Amino acid sequence: MATVPPLPEPQLPVSHRLGHVALRVQDIGRAKAFYQALGLRLTWDAPDWAYLQWPGDAAGIALLSPDYTAAGPHLALHVRERAEVDAARDGLVAAGHRCGPVHDHRDGTASFYLQDPEGNWLELLYEPPGGIPSNVPGQSPIPPPSP
């Protein structure tokens, strides 16, 4: 049996960090309350999804309701420069990986999705220097950690 050589792996931007994990939840209100009780702060609140962050380091959890269809459960690497998203996607595609298109989001972030060789979903997301904006009244962004 012939073995297939692995695809060459492109280098990801050096400024990436694990930024958030997205979970599918059945009851978004119950899930928000649980994670807030653990000390996470509600940053984005919509009927079909919510984003909570650790106040000390800006790492987050996205809660996806059954009605949310833009993405499924995934982990996200955050980068500091918008151009890094495009460059990483170009490198991954050149290396033979299938990637979704880059989307600019309403909160000032930009990202694309792909699956790793094991089928796990990954998002590569640009996080603005001041942090991910909040749509929750009175909440300011939690800045990402310093390099």
Order of helices and strands: EHEEEEHEEE
As residue ranges, the low-confidence spans are: none
Please describe the biggest sheet, giving its number of strands, its sense, and whether it closes into a barrel: 8 strands, mixed
C-alpha-based Rg, rounded: 16 Å
Distance from N terminus to C terminus (CA atoms, Å) equals 47 Å
Number of DSSP helices? 2
Q: Structural class of the helices, strands and pairings?
A: alpha+beta
Oligomer: single chain
Total beta-strand segments: 8
Mean pLDDT: 89
User: What is the strand arrangement across the widest sheet?
Assistant: 2-3-4-1-5-8-7-6
Q: What is the global morphology?
A: globular
Helix content: 10-25%
**What amount of the residues lies in strands?**
25-35%
Walk me through the topology.
Blueprint: E1 17-24, H1 28-37, E2 41-45, E3 49-53, E4 60-64, E5 74-79, H2 82-94, E6 103-104, E7 110-115, E8 121-126
Parallel strand pairs: 1-4, 5-8
Antiparallel strand pairs: 1-5, 2-3, 3-4, 6-7, 7-8
